[in-house]
Amino acid sequence: MKVALVHDWLVTLRGGERVLEALCELFPEADIYTLIHQPGTMPPVIEDRRIYTSFLQRIPGIHSRYRHFLPLFPRAIESFHLQGYDLVLSSSHCVAKGIRKPPGARHLGYVHAPMRYMWDLFDDYFGPGRTSRPVRTAALAVRPWLQRWDRESSAGVDRFIANSRNIAGKIQRFWGREAGVVHPPVDLERFCAEPTEGTGQGGYFLWLGAFAPYKRLDIALEAFRTLDTPLWVVGTGQEASRLTSGPLPPHIRFLGNVPDAELPGLYRNARALLFTGEEDFGITPLESQATGRPVIAYAKGGVLETVTSRTGLFFSEQTPSALAAAVRQFDAWEAHYRPDEARAQARRFSKAAFQQGIMAEVEALLGSPASSRAGQP
């Protein structure tokens, strides 16, 4: 069986790219198709493949400015020709699922999210104060067309898999399609190892992620202006200049991007991870639980499937005051917290469980054992 793996873009290593990494392990001979690729940013299991890029790759400076070319993404993904493939497996949060399969092939679409910035999170990206008036005007102009393309291109997928029940509901609402659920993998070997030092002893709360609008780092920053306790922020992204430009109290530290090898220790020594956005799924709460540390999370989205009332503390309003109140409640809540329950919760989302779920979906699509077709044991 000849397999094509399709991913939106390969520029930064985040949760979606970890999913692609696990898919590459399942299909060791598969080729990769993506809009753009910045060489050297991905792990070897991805970099060592045949990677085909679209015409967008030839645009100077595209790797740092690709979001500006969003209206060209549908045309770019449709420009690929996949003759000779038996299975197309897309990993999509933007346009990857819109690739055109060759005659006789089957298309299995793994969906991290429908195009969130054109559907339910439009105002998080393009609302007042989020971007300039010309950019908002342009986004409003292309939104109906991109929504229509997003809906119509879903017809080219034979079977959908959502990364959570939350996203399965959005697939039904926006595209009118049913989807199975296979949760993304967590690298438990890195995070679930027994700690060699005390946990939660760093005294800080941790926020970790890309500085994207919907992740709402601004809520954490505003909340901790009123709290006399350390906040460490890991990451960077498109909102970095806006979020770091003003004066902040000295107990708020920006660490930038940190090496992967340092992340388990940062999680393990934090009092808790702060999760302020409404995520489609969310890998970081599981990584935190895998190290034995709890989560303080906004109670909406995929986090409701990964964090329990015994492994995390929820706040119901996406506001700084609600988060600050939860942090103040944390001391009393933590008295009943058990790290072993958090680690057990994280183990439910292993890479092995993800890969088994994907192979079951492939077999259901093809009507015969996919492992033998793919050359897997």
Can you say what the CATH homologous superfamily of the largest domain is? Glycogen Phosphorylase B
Helix content: 25-40%
What number of domains?
A: 2
Structural class, from helix and strand content?
alpha/beta
What is the strand arrangement across the widest sheet? 3-2-1-4-5-6-7
GO molecular function: glycosyltransferase activity
Organism: Hyalangium rubrum
Keywords: Glycosyltransferase, Transferase
Domain Glycosyltransferase subfamily 4-like N-terminal: 15-190
Describe the model:
It is an enzyme of class 2 (transferase). This is Glycosyltransferase. Residues 15-190 form the Glycosyltransferase subfamily 4-like N-terminal domain. By secondary structure, the chain is of the alpha/beta class. It has 2 domains: 3-185 and 350-374, Glycogen Phosphorylase B (Rossmann fold, 3-Layer(aba) Sandwich); 188-347, 3-Layer(aba) Sandwich (Rossmann fold). The chain contains 17 helices and 13 strands. The protein has helices at 15-26, 44-47, 62-65, 73-78, 122-126, 133-153, 165-175, 188-191, 217-225, 240-244, 263-269, 284-290, 303-306, 320-334, 339-347, 351-366, 370-374, and strands at residues 3-7, 31-34, 51-53, 87-92, 106-111, 159-162, 180-181, 205-208, 231-234, 252-256, 272-275, 295-298, 312-315. A 7-stranded parallel β-sheet has the order 3-2-1-4-5-6-7. Strands 10-9-8-11-12-13 form a 6-stranded parallel β-sheet, with helices on both faces. Helix 9 packs across helix 14. The longest helix has 21 residues, at 133-153. It is globular. Mean pLDDT is 90; it is low at 371-377.
